[in-house]
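Listing S7. Sequence submitted for prediction.
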Amino acid sequence: MITCTFKDNSYTTSDPLLNSCISQKENGFHIEIPSQDKISLLIDFDSSESDLHIHIPSHCNASLTLKESNVTQDHNITFYGKAHSHINCLWLLRTAPESSITLNRNIELYESAFFEDFFLIDPQGKLEVKSNVHLLEPKASCTSLGSAFVPSLCQFIFEPIQYHEAQKTSSYLSFHSVIEDLGRSQFQGLIHIDKAYNDCSGEQQNKNLLMGKRARALSSPRLDIVPSQVMCRHGSATSSLDPLKVYYLESRGFPTPKAKDILKDAFFWEPFSGLPEDILDQAHSFYTS
């Protein structure tokens, strides 16, 4: 895996050949991934100075890990997936304590491009993430699976929008949030399909687990669908821990706090169950650090 680290408005990389593929422009850093069949890249991004743009060429199979730790400022991240590219992205995000940040993420996909997205978000203050997926050409598709852990006295707002802007495009999003007592989570999703584009499919699912009587979750998945020849679904669910499941683990010898932690972790990691073991290890290491 090639490592690329951005910090203090500069960057370093473990592969000197990648230096020629990175440039700094007025709108931020640009990574032009080389035209090759496969590439594996770890991007450690400090967003204190700039935005980030990642370009994936046609017919490239790219495995990306984007890690952001102790984030303190607003910034933008944009992915460009050219025709027939296949992008697998693990996004690990943790904000600085008591911070108040807005992060804009954009994904632009062209003909038959596929973006497989796994994200783990750990807000340590107030965080708003606006995630826009643009399916720009036929047969482009995006699958997004992720979880957020919202600590006590923290607030997380997630606004994912899936724009279908061509025929035969597809999108799917499943998002889990675990909210501790006095934490706040808000989900404002949208699937948009214009009248000119049929044979599209889109889905959004949001599930919330409340870990205290004063934890709060507001979920609002929405559809903006004009054509009739499409398949779209949305749904949400919010609940606290099931007392019967807690009791079952207690009856097997687990103390009550441990039983609750087991159920919480099972809910949190459910969207990541299909990840390869090496990528899942990265997510676990980040989550427990």
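Caption to Listing S7: primary sequence and predicted structure tokens for the chain studied. The helical segments are 243-251, 256-269, 277-288. The mean pLDDT is 92.
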